[in-house]
TrEMBL record:
Record-linked InterPro entries: GH3 (IPR004993), GH3_C (IPR055378), GH3_M (IPR055377)
Gene Ontology, cellular component aspect: cytoplasm
Source organism: Patiriisocius marinistellae
Domain of life of the native organism: Bacteria
Pfam families, alphabetized: GH3 (PF03321), GH3_C (PF23572), GH3_M (PF23571)
Protein name in the entry: GH3 auxin-responsive promoter
Coiled coil: none
Domain spans labelled GH3 middle: 297-362
All copies of domain GH3 C-terminal, residue ranges: 390-494
Amino acid sequence: MAILGSIIKGAIDLRGSLTSETSPREEQRNVLNNLLETAKNTAFGKYYAFEKILESEDVSKSFNQAIPFHDYNKMKEEWWCRVIDGVEDITWPGKPSYFALSSGTTGKESKRIPVTSAMIDAIKAAGVQQVGALSNFNLEPDFFEKEIMMLGSSTDLSERGEFLEGEISGITASNIPFWFKGYYKPGEDIAKIDDWDERVQTIAERAKTWDIGALSGIPSWMELMMKKVIEYHNAETIHDVWPNLQVYTSGGVAFQPYEKSFDLILSKPITVIDTYLASEGFIAFQQRPETTSMKLVTDNGIYFEFVPFKPEYILEDGSLSQDAPALTLDEVELEQDYALIISTVAGAWRYLIGDTIAFTDIERAEIIITGRTKFFLNVVGSQLSVNKMDVALREMEQKFDIEIPEFTLAALNIDGEFYHHWYLGTEAKVDAAEISEALDTALKNANKNYKVARSKALKGVKVTTISPNVFYDWNASNKKKGGQVKMARVMKEEKFKEWEAFVKNI
């Protein structure tokens, strides 16, 4: 009998039963008040008169009216440049413990995002909440005695002056609680290996010495790691190496595009739990098995606002018009795309994180990620979000019985007429003209704006199929492999030319 597992499972179940049911709306009001109170004597807090905001009858409304939206460039140029230089009490009391490096999906140059001690504590607390939610997933007691493979970036953080910096997955892994270290794999020594290929090779070599029950990481890199483990051990599936694998916590991107390709390397079903950990904080996690939606972490160091994701509010570079309305959790509607705005215990204020979300359950504050503000394709009015692209591609997977875990596209002006050129990552052989027509039809049926655009200025659709490995090689050539690196789903025409040249030469 799994005695330790039974004790742990019992503690998790007990914690779940004792957790009080509080309103996410009330939690958000408390978070905003705490943020303002804590930061009122910082340079930012004095400049924007946080004390006066706290004295107002409607704190959230006054906060909204007093402080402009900030993207990374605005936040860095006006405030974080001094934080990076080591000046205290700029946007949060004291100095940050770390800087999270994030090049995201759009460029080679890393952003430096402050990670304070308060944010580390908030991420840990959200992680405890997520562990507590496992009581809803009906896992057997022996699962809680298995080891957990966390595949992120290197935990060997770089020194930069008085600060340490690295990707957020490396920072959080270097701060895991002492009691968790016995469960954590690949372990501290392997996790410090900076070269992703070397780290994965070492994982493959030691894989059979571990009893892995859960995996955690970005789907694309997790899939490549599992394939390497399978290849090294001449196995058929990952369950031949880790027979007790039961759970995968996905992070950073939606899991659905990878579902079919994952199934090919499993011999039995596993429980998939979505999480949303960004460089700026732990945003949300899947709380219950009846849905793939994630619950916003509304009580723990992040205040959320939501800007309706409409063309008139989004500037060409993906930033927001200062005239755009920002809604609170009291004001949002179901199944509407919103650009996510956050204010945090790391000293980000009304910060455009770059992701778009939609609510699936407002009372529970449950969301899905629908895309990126910079990946919204609205050339000639087509209004395609990444979520709508994903839905159409899942239909292609079913129609042609193929797997398409990766894709990118661009709107191209050819002799005065616009075309959408898609690159689909699949190992299957499929007629490009046939899938192009089917994809075009699916988008027309699912999106009335796209259908109108196709009847006017959007001339047609072109599809090129390539191996998914080309996408991973592209990311490796532009940034580092692994970690938080994600593929750009929509490219500008100039970047797309670089992409096409890369594909031809690979």
